[in-house]
Amino acid sequence: MTKCGPVRVELGSAGRADVDEYSWALTGLANGWNKIDLKISNATRVGTPNPGAINWFRIYDSKSGSITTRIDAIEMYNTELSAVDDLIFNENEIKVYPNPVKDQIYIELSDFNYSKLNVVITDLSGKTLINETVYPVDKTKLHLNVGWLDQGLYLLKISSDMKTLTKKINIKK
Fold first, then answer.
1. Is residue 50 situated within a structural domain?
2. pLDDT tier, 166 (very low <50, low <70, confident <90, very high otherwise)
3. Side-chain half-sphere of 161: how many Cα atoms within 13 Å?
4. Tell me, what CATH number does 161's domain have?
5. DSSP string of 96-160?
6. What is the model's pTM?
7. Domain count of the chain?
8. 50 and 103 fall within a common domain
């Protein structure tokens, strides 16, 4: 990192540079491992990036530089709410438990205003393992069988027509 000048990170949804992207300037990086947290609300925007369709990434100090950067993990999750981002369920509207879970995970809704919910579980590499549409008519408590999944961390995404909730779940045997 001592060879780098001002470092930038870019994430985009257009599959190529400088189109529909978020961009951040990084400061305070040290040689060795660095953990960075990037908030969409602090990003410079080019075009109209779609946070649900990020498919392009780069980190650089100049666009013609020769320094290689190794990325071990990228995690994206929605923890903010703004007028331009998707609406998220709050903890009073939807609860997911137990966590850690062994066999059954429960989804508890505060009311039944949802004609349907999409429930997706992915592993940390992004592979979809469960993708179900549920119709919680007159139900405030749903359950999902996850006992067949291997022990480990997964992402659970629950979405309605208007709102989304993404949570990490830990499966322990």
1. yes
2. confident
3. 5
4. 2.60.40.3080
5. EE-SSBSSEEEEEESS---S-EEEEEEETT--EEEEEEE--TT-SEEEEE-TTSPSEEEEEEEE-
6. 0.50
7. 2
8. no
